[in-house]
């Protein structure tokens, strides 16, 4: 499979180029250039097929010009020592739990595959790269966990001092090895600007091969299609066509589902669930797409006012709002309703969900209200233990922190404090690597 930019279909690149470039040179996002039909392969997967087997088959089927069969399965095995799980709730709702990886959020799937593919390709070429990334919390921790111990890759994470949660900071600063955390005396925007400046600074790029790991990277998007396929393999006997509900911010997760569907997975519809940041639900209502500044909510990983993957969806749907509407229904859920939902599900079913998952669950119930009581699969994007403040406030129970995160609490923070200037990042890079 080859890929081209959403803004220029002439410039075809291979997977490796798309992976290391991240963003296309024209500012567009890379998308698959060819249609793939994997429906025969999908039909062979069943209840007993492991997640790594499904991932390995899909990597090979989609990327065989880059990875041979044994490399594909090797990547799947190393990238995914964890698997999704399904919990059945009342009212025909199934929860697809995607938080059993290292950082306890679904972003582990994307980050882990990205890291493993990069490492495999760098090894082949006997090269080294430095991943440079700015984080406001969550993404950085998934990236750090995914890359730790990879010999051919150094990771530099910039985060705004005092503005990430104590637990998030531990996730960024306690790994050691090839992971370095730069604590920037400034804001997240400063961190992002410093990273951007470094990528266009010739003194740096002449000496160091820089790459990024941000969420628009195809290497993070493609593996997110694997768990839709895995979920289908678990339920296909009693639900031949599935509706997936996706708590959404940048719409990467939902876009990956659309790709799985385009490759032949029988998904009948997607329900896009957003918090108050509702540009996509509004677009489906009135046909006008108006990106806005984001507003803060309790499902903060979804606080996105200008979803980056809209550009990929727009391309897939040929810019027609009717095509969006044919595949996607959308609901917005405000903070009060999110809290009520967490409370209600806990009281009725003793199941604790994180605020993002609660937005998805509520949207699924609203969809049932409008369309009849059909079975829905809700993607659960993070472990509730990562959001103790919200959960404790609502149900007066402190959710247990997953073991992966409890381990970190006992570790020592190590960071390098730097000024919020591009010069100080440049000094650091040129003296360290
Ligand atoms: C990133 C994130 C989301 C949003 O996913 P997108 O792919 O950006 O739509 C939802 N929930 C959690 C917990 C996240 O970390």
Automatic annotation (TrEMBL):
Modification N6-(pyridoxal phosphate)lysine occurs at: 107
Protein's pathway: Amino-acid biosynthesis; L-threonine biosynthesis; L-threonine from L-aspartate: step 5/5
Domain Threonine synthase N-terminal: from-to ranges: 3-79
Cofactor(s) of this protein: pyridoxal 5'-phosphate
InterPro entries for this protein: Ser/Thr_deHydtase_PyrdxlP-BS, Thr_synth_N, Thr_synth_N_sf, Thr_synthase-like, Threonine_Synthase, TrpB-like_PALP, TrpB-like_PALP_sf
Catalyzed reaction equations: O-phospho-L-homoserine + H2O = L-threonine + phosphate
Family: Belongs to the threonine synthase family.
NCBIfam families: thrC
Record's protein name: Threonine synthase
Lineage: Bacteria, Pseudomonadati, Spirochaetota, Spirochaetia, Spirochaetales
